[in-house]
Design goal:
Layout (H helix, E strand, L loop, with lengths): L1 H5 L3 H23 L2 H17 L11 H14 L1 H12 L22 H12 L3 H12 L4 H8 L3 H25 L15 H14 L2
Helix pairs in contact: 2-3, 2-4, 2-7, 3-4, 3-5, 3-10, 4-8, 6-9, 7-9, 8-9
Length: 209
């Protein structure tokens, strides 16, 4: 598969998109706390992945880790990436396919307020701690895969994650206490609302035409 994509096989890239788009979108939603921005991050990530496909060599052991590493870089440089995205989309169309985002994308996040509170708490961490936490805890990557995605030693992943978890316990409580809009969840499933899922699908269809 890697060799097919490296050679410019769009069908092979479509398979990668189908398999990993939900994970990338969920990672972006959880990290940014913003549905619309997460749509942009997802589109930018796969555009960058196509542009950087020559790097998808045999030593890339995990395509998911590779994509989440790209997504992390996209979120570091959203403004610059958005400009490049607009210019490049006029020249390149991604595969015309859209995943189903509606199935358990954000775990146990009960509502938009709680998601936003968690995202605000996450933003109060150091960037290096935030990235490791999001990839390990929310995107379920192993330590080795995160080390590969971010280009750091496994030991560094472990230490940053430990610090991030300790800080987040306190910061999330502070954010929830400070937000009067936060209510206890009323039987919520933790799924992306239908309107959010539909918006994501519509946005991606527009971006791939």
């Amino acid at each position: 598969m890697n060799e097919r994509v490296r050679s410019g096989d769009r069908a092979g890239f479509a398979e990668i998109f189908d398999e990993h788009a939900r994970v990338v979108y969920a990672h972006a939603v959880r990290t940014t706390g913003d549905w619309a921005l997460a749509e942009d991050v997802m589109s930018l990530t796969f555009l960058e992945a196509w542009r950087l496909r020559d790097k998808l060599r045999e030593e890339v052991r995990s395509v998911r880790a590779w994509l989440l590493g790209i997504a992390t870089n996209v979120m570091r440089n959203t403004a610059r990436s958005a400009r490049r995205h607009r210019e490049a989309m006029s020249r390149l169309s991604l595969p015309e396919t859209s995943p189903d985002f509606a199935d358990e994308l954000v775990g146990q996040m009960a509502d938009a307020q709680r998601l936003a509170a968690a995202a605000r708490a996450l933003q109060r961490l150091k960037r290096t701690e935030r990235e490791v936490f999001a990839l390990v805890v929310w995107s379920d990557l192993g330590y080795a895969a995160v080390a590969e995605a971010l280009g750091i030693p496994v030991g560094t992943v472990r230490s940053r994650l430990s610090r991030a978890r300790e800080k987040l316990r306190r910061l999330v409580d502070e954010e929830l206490a400070a937000d009067p809009r936060v209510m206890e969840p009323q039987g919520g499933s933790g799924h992306i609302p239908d309107s959010g899922a539909a918006a994501a699908r519509a946005s991606h269809r527009r971006g791939t035409r």
